[in-house]
Amino acid sequence: MSVELLQRVVDETTRVVDNVNDDQLGNATPCTEWTVRDIVNHITGGATMFAISAEQGKVPDEQIGQLLGGDNLGNDFKGAWGAAGTRAMNAFDGLDLSKVVTLPFGEMPAGIALNIAIFDVATHAVDIASSTGQAVADTDLLETALEFGHAMIGQELRDMGLFAAEQPCPADAPVADRLLAFSGRKV
Prior knowledge:
With 187 residues, the chain is mainly alpha-helical. The protein contains eight helices and two strands; from the N terminus they run ααααββαααα. It has one domain (2-182): Four Helix Bundle (Hemerythrin (Met), subunit A) (Up-down Bundle), CATH 1.20.120.450. The protein has helices at residues 2-18, 36-56, 61-69, 77-92, 110-131, 139-152, 155-159, 175-182, and strands at 100-103, 106-109. Helix 1 (2-18) packs antiparallel against helix 4 (77-92) and helix 2 packs antiparallel against helix 3. The longest helix is centred in the middle third of the chain and has 22 residues, at 110-131. It is globular and about 40 Å long.
């Protein structure tokens, strides 16, 4: 099921990214330290990192800095994201999800890494959409991403600074708002 969810998140994120205009790349986002371009760069590097970990078991040390902090977009942010999303899909399609992969934050079964990727990319798709006058249409996907987040993100990860403190949000708010608030964004 998770590989199908990855396809849905890649498809939905691609739809959102493809509808971003060049003049919106500098827009502020709910992820306050990043612009729209920064988030597209982050998910592009992240998708590539997850793909390499699925393909090779581990990302070579010399590539981590580029993927996590370098420019992964060049002059074609839509094409760069599209290629990275496709590579991630291809890497996880048919993969034994019990295979252990190594990411910069630890070793884990590929299925857990896949769920982290789904949560992260879905959250950032909402960041981008909300900053560019769009919405993520697949609300069932967002509900599942939020469930993954609740299962994976505890106080320890928040204390480490990987996630900000959960922000207040009404229980009956739209799922996009609940996902952002859970991820530490003010809604």
